[in-house]
Amino acid sequence: MYRSLMSVSRPALLHLLDRRSQKGKEDPSRLSERKGTAGRKRPAGKLAWVHAASVGEAQSALILIEALLKKNEALNILVTTGTVTSAKMMAKNLPERAFHQFYPLDHPDWVDSFLSHWHPDAVFWMESELWPNMLLAIKERNIPAALINARLSERSYKTWRIFGRAAKNILETFSIILTQNEKEAQRFRSLKAPHVLTTDNLKYNARALGFDEKSLTDLSSMTARRPLWLYASTHDGEEALACGIHQILKATMPDLLTVIVPRHPDRRENIVKTCESYNLNTRLRGANHDLPQREDDIYIADTLGELGLFYRLSPVACIGRCFSNDGGGGHNPVEAMQLNCAVLFGPNVQNLQEIYDEIDAVHAAIKVNTEEQFTETLRDLLNNPKALQDVQTNAVNFAHEKAKVLVRVLDALEPILVQSGIVKEGDRECA
Fold first, then answer.
1. Theoretical Cys-Cys bridge with 203: which of 30, 60, 253, 408, CB 3.0 to 4.6 Å?
2. Distances (CA, A) of 139 to 38, 108, 146, 169, 173
């Protein structure tokens, strides 16, 4: 039924692309890629295809891409994503011999055009975006494929179970499915997926977030000898919480600087109004990268791609969307832990509950359930170098352990790499 509907969906899909383009959600100059027409020639030789739907998956894919390129010095890698933001991120971060194209919408003709042009020797699909027409076309062409970092929410699992035979048919595209945890593995096995292993979450092995050295030098100079903390990836409600905490702590730490990096910088005006309502001196970083001044209480880093910079600047970071007005859900804490931050997190991290439970069990971060507990914990860390160092050390050690997932993933992918001719049998060279 899906394939039949998609075969007559061209007018609707073209209208969708047009509307998305008008809203800035598509690159008008590259819309042909979304219709299966390649934006460049296929390079000669072996070509691996890595698909990562959006920014999160793309960040996870980068370390795998680099490892695959090291295994074969003649290999090229096609990387597809579906969002403008992820395309910009890839353009900035992809290594030599890897290049980006937009993923085509799932119309049968566009899928056929895409595969006929690129002829990938192997396919590595990240996480959970399963497009039936593309996957069945990969299966029909007998292209070796793996689903990596696989996840399947309870809601999606129940939906797939309704279409059990179709789910089995689609999942048989993959020679192997590598899941983030055993719960996900059991869901895939119950859908009759043929070969499922648990390797942990590759995104926690992602390379450390980048930064600009001059910016770090400038910020460090301007904030030297000031107590400083970071609220990273904030959502609505969390900026007010940061301001309330700052007001309390300022009574005993008059030089305190609170740095806020909002998840969505386009909220900057509302965030400024919130901070000013607490009678706090507030400064936006802005496009000119203005630096915090001595009289500033709140510094809002309303820029994209600089979270690695502020994790390096700040000894303590609370990871956002754990106290937000939308009910929370959490964001990735390991990015901060890799960079020697003592991490705080609130009660609402249900979307990443498993990783936060692991962190909590080994005391690699501190859970704060209330504003009062948040305030007192932050006060203690900023005034107690030994306590701060202990949390930072545990955090770095935890992140180091998570880095071992790449080895497990590469070991599991070895049969596909050999089958596709990307590596020779017995070649164990890896990242």
1. 60
2. 21, 14, 11, 9, 5
The catalytic residues are 57
DSSP 169-216: HHHTT-SEEEESSHHHHHHHHHTT-S-EEE---GGGGPPPPP--HHHH
Can you read off the two tokens belonging to residue 99? 């290049």
State CA 226 to chain mean position distance.
Answer: 31
235-250 pLDDT, tens digit per residue, is 999 999 999 999 999 9
Quote the pTM value. Answer: 0.74
CATH 3.40.50.2000 placement within the chain: 213-383
- Summarize pLDDT for 22-63 with one digit per residue, the tens: 999 999 999 999 999 999 999 999 999 999 987 778 878 898
The span from the CA of 173 to the CA of 193, in Å, is 9
Q: What are the angstrom distances between the C-alpha of 396 and each of 55, 99, 356, 365, 409?
A: 24, 32, 15, 10, 22
CATH 3.40.50.11720 residue window(s) in the chain: 2-207+404-419
- Structural domain 2-207+404-419, CATH architecture: 3-Layer(aba) Sandwich (3.40)
Strand-by-strand arrangement of the 316-319 sheet: 282-284, 298-300, 257-262, 228-234, 316-319, 342-345, 366-367
Nearest to 283 by CA among 303, 312, 304: 303
Q: What is the CATH number of domain 213-383?
A: 3.40.50.2000
